[in-house]
Specification:
Helix content is about 20%, strand content about 25%. It is α+β, with helices and mostly antiparallel strands and about 55 residues long. The chain has one domain: Alpha-Beta Plaits. Strands 1-4 form a two-stranded antiparallel sheet. Strands 2-3 form a two-stranded antiparallel sheet. The longest helix is centred in the first third of the chain and has 5 residues.
């Protein structure tokens, strides 16, 4: 199941960008965006998002 970001919930803190071991997360318009081609579903982003904006679809 792909890991996705809810842009309405994301606060743009960039915590997920810092913890992603695969460099799959970038910021666009102050919101996290996951590159599905790079994401290996390590799930560190899910575990560290302070507002639970990242989840498995």
């Amino acid at each position: 199941m792909p890991v996705v970001v809810d842009p309405d919930t994301c606060i743009g803190c960039q915590t997920c960008v810092e913890v992603c071991p695969h460099g799959a997360i970038s910021m666009q318009e102050d919101k996290a965006v996951i590159d599905q081609n790079l994401c290996k579903q390590a799930k560190e982003c899910i575990n560290t998002c302070p507002v639970e904006a990242i989840y498995e679809e």
